[in-house]
Design goal:
The complex is a heterotrimer of chains A (335), B (265) and C (262). With 335 residues, chain A is mainly α. Chain A has 13 helices and two strands; from the N terminus they run H-H-E-E-H-H-H-H-H-H-H-H-H-H-H. In chain A, strands 1-2 form a two-stranded antiparallel ribbon. With 265 residues, chain B is mainly alpha-helical. Chain B folds into two domains: 151 residues, no CATH class; 91 residues, no CATH class. Chain B contains 13 helices and two strands. In chain B, strand 1 and strand 2 form a beta hairpin. The longest helix of chain B is centred in the middle third of the chain and has 31 residues. Chain C is α/β, with parallel strands linked by helices and 262 residues long. Chain C has eleven helices and ten strands. The radius of gyration of chain C is 19 Å and the shape is globular. In chain C, 45% of the residues are buried.
């Protein structure tokens, strides 16, 4: 579910960075207020722990396949939402830098989609209220699964919105949604079950590890309001942007959702693509974009191709020249 | 398990690259961070049909790979992490976007095909740029750059600690997992019945480790502050590096070089 | 050391048990008394070995001396200062503590940063910090590891670097918890030589009796939280019956090779 740099427009990336910066600043303030120095090493080691467990495969009962853990909810349960959020940030930063999971530009949206929802919605708004009264295994499982599913659904929904607003996909809103949401339902359930298994184990053997952050602290009305409105503003804003740039798509998906079987009118094709028409008729829901100025965007003929070949040639030429001069300098071996 | 040991290996390789002493390695980390972010932003901001505008941006990674003496091959492996998602989304473009853009002979090239290609190119560019940043700078210095950008010290400390303990915990997780799989040879992954206890045990060990770590910090006078990388002042050549790349990126972004070159045909 | 201190460490009737649910350490013996009425003192600049089977309270005793566990009964004096919450900064500037697992001691990326961590926390100027770091690395003979990434180092290198982090704090006393554990013979030998060359008050908790024999002047034998015997190293470590009664064995070098028993 990591967004890649290529899938996000700079403006969207910037917005998501700003949103994360706000959440992170608030969390830093909160963690500093707790004035618990021990949290610093605990957070660091727990991030590394989540990182390591992400690499362990869990076999899914009844299927031959396996899945793995994402960890936002688990970290929040162990550390509280604020420290959990900060720890998730460092997990995501390391993943981005060392393992090319996600990208520098998309980091903000990845933090939002994966850490924010897990820590502040999944944990703060769902898990914690649900286990406040009792820590019976059934309740823990329910709270974890529900928390995970909802945060992953929100995350997947945000990926959809971010990608669509960035305008890099020809998929319609509804189609993209159908691709993203069901699979994240499965991922969320698994994540919830693994988290629950760990929490139940910890609760049975060393309950003091959970004590600090579940029983005593109440979720204030203000906190709830702030989190909800942050989610509403971003998702609502995103939705309206998608809707305005892509009205047919939204219409389509709303029709689908409300059970209206009437599909949006088939568009008149601009011709030419006969081979693909079969698929097109089944899958197309949007009239094709009419890019009247496509001529100016890209050359009309072979000269465009030749132009790009020339550029590529010059680039490679530069690199070769560099190599040539470097060899003469006799410095540095290749890795 | 392959995944775990592989991760440790990848960290080693990147670190080794970052520790070398090429000219690029010595450029101020903040400068490299800014150049990388501006590069990715410029490249990603191109319109989805603007293949020709995107092409000249290849020059940055190509030159940097040469300057740093890193073979592109070491980066190609990482593509398999990024490209699946990008391709997955990109592949739908030719299916749904039939805007005809131009013809080569009798074949009509549609917008979907071009936008798929640009998407993959953007993904590759972004990956190469981030890879080059890490491979020539290293996490510790990137953290120093982040500190200069006034990222809260608690976050920078977290990143450094996570980075330090990843290898320790990966090998612990590896040991646990191997011990498990030796006794459960037919399982594809960890069986659901012991999800809790397997991860839980690892969790306890990590918590105890964190406790010891805290003690060890306290014993050496820890008061909540972390001091690390020695400060590095930007030199004249850092500024030259910064402004020449920024100049090139902005020029390539604003001027349609390919368009001018077309004149020759 | 200009002032003459006779007893660097003095323990008077210490008893201790972990809290029922202590976050710091987890063991199934929570709530049980770990140390019972332990009293001892060091005599001048000597090296004292603390021996005993697993779980007799060796590590706990060391933890109490540096104030990592404070709710003990009795009195602990370090250079005549009682260990209390208030005196901790002063106590800790005098005592260095070597953890069993070097990975817990070394939490920075590179050796230099880790050794510098302590001096920096005490607010020293960067120049002075560098001097101290280089001196500590020099003493341990690992100047070449200065900029090495910690996770790439071998167990032996990590142990040496861990000791350097302590030396950089310029303590008078060093406490070592199982220093020779998980070291190969060559590294273990190097460790023993280094320990013998370090001119500090040393308290070494271990069940590597051969190492104790080569490094300590005096030995304290602990069992079930009590001091069973205290005395000259050679005397105690030669006492086969005593050692075997408390879950230990004669040091290998005193046993002689008796062939493999089948």
């Amino acid at each position: 579910m990591h967004m890649a740099d290529a899938l996000i427009a700079p403006a969207v990336a910037g917005t998501m960075y700003a949103a994360c910066a706000a959440a992170a600043t608030y969390s830093v303030k909160k963690v500093r207020l707790e004035n618990d120095m021990k949290k610093i090493p605990v957070m660091g080691v727990m991030s590394a722990f989540v990182f390591a467990t992400q690499m362990i495969n869990f076999s899914i009962p009844g299927t031959g396949s396996s899945g793995h853990l994402c960890g936002g909810l688990l970290l929040s349960i162990l550390l509280g939402p604020y420290a959990g959020f900060l720890s998730m940030i460092s997990v995501l930063v390391i993943q981005c830098l060392l393992f090319a999971d996600g990208g520098l530009l998309a980091l903000g949206s990845n933090i939002w989609n994966m850490a924010f929802y897990g820590c502040f919605v999944g944990y703060l708004l769902i898990y914690r209220p649900m286990v406040k009264k009792s820590m019976k295994p059934g309740r823990i499982i329910l709270a974890c699964v529900l928390g995970s599913i909802i945060s992953l659904q929100l995350g997947a929904f945000s990926v959809t919105l971010e990608t669509l607003i960035s305008g890099i996909t020809a998929l319609s809103f509804g189609q993209f949604l159908m691709l993203m949401q069901p699979i994240h339902l499965a991922i969320g359930t698994l994540e919830g079950l693994i988290t629950a298994a760990v929490v139940i184990f910890v609760n049975n053997t060393r309950p003091e590890l959970l004590e600090n952050y579940t029983a005593k602290n109440r979720v204030g009305f203000k906190q709830t309001l702030v989190v909800l409105s942050a989610v509403a503003v971003l998702i609502g804003g995103g939705l309206s942007l998608v809707a305005s740039s892509n009205p047919d798509g939204l219409e389509w998906s709303i029709q689908k959702m409300t059970g209206n079987t009437e599909v949006a009118p088939e568009s008149e094709f601009t011709g030419a693509v006969k081979a693909a028409e079969g698929i097109q008729e089944k899958t197309a829901v949007l009239p094709d974009y009419a890019f009247t100025d496509s001529d100016s965007v890209l050359g009309t003929s072979i000269s465009g191709i030749l132009g790009s070949a020339l550029v590529a040639f010059i680039c490679i030429g530069c690199a070769v020249l560099f190599k040539f001069f470097k060899k003469r300098d006799n410095s540095g071996g290749k890795l | 398990m392959g995944k775990l040991t592989n991760a440790v290996y990848e960290i080693h390789v990147l670190d080794e690259m970052a520790e070398r002493d090429t000219g690029i390695n010595q450029v101020h980390p903040l400068v490299k961070l800014i150049v990388t972010v501006v590069y990715i932003t410029c490249a990603v901001s191109f319109d989805k049909y603007n293949l020709l505008g995107l092409l000249p941006f290849l020059i940055y990674p190509l030159i940097l790979f040469e300057l740093a003496g890193i073979s592109i091959k070491s980066c190609i492996k990482k593509l398999k992490v990024v490209l699946p998602l990008v391709c997955f989304i990109g592949l739908f473009n030719p299916v749904f976007d039939h805007t005809p853009l131009f013809k080569i002979g009798n074949i009509i090239i549609t917008g979907g095909i071009i936008s798929m290609v640009t998407l993959i190119m953007k993904g590759t560019y972004a990956l190469m740029a981030s890879f080059l940043l890490v491979a020539t700078t290293g996490i510790e210095k990137i953290c120093y750059a982040l500190k200069l950008l006034h990222l809260p010290s608690i976050i920078v400390t977290q990143i450094l600690l996570t980075y330090r303990y990843i290898t320790v915990l990966l090998s612990e997780a590896n040991a646990v997992f191997q011990a498990y799989s030796l006794r459960a040879p037919r399982e594809n992954g960890v069986k659901y019945k012991i999800w809790g206890s397997l991860i839980g045990q690892l969790l306890f060990r990590s918590m105890d480790r964190a406790g010891n770590l805290y003690d060890s910090m306290l014993l050496r006078g820890f008061q909540g502050e972390f001091y690390y990388a020695r400060s590095q002042k930007g030199s004249g050549s850092d500024y030259v590096y910064l402004f020449s790349w920024l100049g090139i990126f902005i020029a390539l972004r604003l001027i349609n070089i390919t368009g001018y070159l077309k004149v020759f045909f | 050391m200009i002032k003459m201190i006779q007893h660097f460490i003095e323990c008077r009737n210490i008893s201790f048990s972990y809290e029922k649910f202590s976050q710091v350490k987890f063991s199934y013996e929570n709530g049980k008394e770990v140390l019972k009425d332990v009293s001892f003192k060091t005599d001048g600049k000597e090296a004292v070995g603390i021996i005993g089977a697993n779980g007799v309270g060796k590590s706990t005793l060391l933890r109490i001396l540096v104030g990592l566990e404070l709710n003990f009964t009795g009195e602990v004096l370090v250079e005549q200062i009682p260990v209390t919450k208030k005196s901790l900064p002063e106590i800790r500037s005098k005592i260095g503590y070597l953890f069993q697992d070097s990975d817990n001691q070394l939490f920075n990326q590179t050796v230099y940063n880790d050794v510098a961590f302590g001096p920096r926390n005490y607010g020293l100027e960067e120049e002075e910090v560098e001097k101290r770091v280089m001196k500590a690395l020099g003493t341990m003979g690992i100047t070449h590891l200065r900029d090495k990434q910690i996770y790439k180092m071998s167990g032996g290198e990590k142990k040496m670097a861990s000791i350097a982090t302590i030396l950089a704090m310029e303590p008078d006393i060093i406490l070592l918890d199982e220093p020779s554990i998980a070291l190969d013979p060559k590294n273990r030998r190097a460790l023993i030589n280094t320990l013998n060359s370090l001119d500090y008050v040393k308290l070494i908790a271990s069940h590597d009796l051969d190492m104790i024999l080569e490094t300590c002047d005096r030995v304290i034998l602990l069992a079930e939280g009590r001091i069973i015997r205290e005395g000259i190293t050679e005397l105690i470590l030669r006492d086969k019956e005593l050692l075997e009664a408390y879950g230990l064995e004669l040091p290998l070098c005193l046993r002689g090779y008796q062939g493999r028993k089948r």
